[in-house]
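Example record used in the benchmark description.
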Amino acid sequence: MRRITTAVAAAAVAAVAVTGCSQVAQLRPVAGDSLASLRTTTIDTVLAAGDTFKSAPVCTADGTDLSCEGLTTDGVAVLSKGQMTATTEIPSEFADQVPGWAKDTDTFLVAEVTVGSDVLFKGLAIEVLDENGRTQQ
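Model output (structure tokens):
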């Protein structure tokens, strides 16, 4: 009887472990590379605007050009575009967004996040990431 109880308990633990694997596979880094930084900027910006996601942004890269696409719970398209830009080539309109502690950073992610036709954010992703206690990679 003890062996059966032990076997059942082990099977239950194994079932829980296997179920947990699918959840672990969905975890994303807070930041880790430029693509993760754009994804995090997109999510943080959309959530701060009071929208929620039906499908979280899926991001792709083509060289230094990055993009993410998702949907709000209302079915409105969430789009973001980003480009890694050398510090010396940051558009002048965003130069004031560079925090003092980041002046020695080699590159910055210039991003634009839209929901439908509304532009929620346009500027250096580091502004959103820093505001939310994250780092640009």
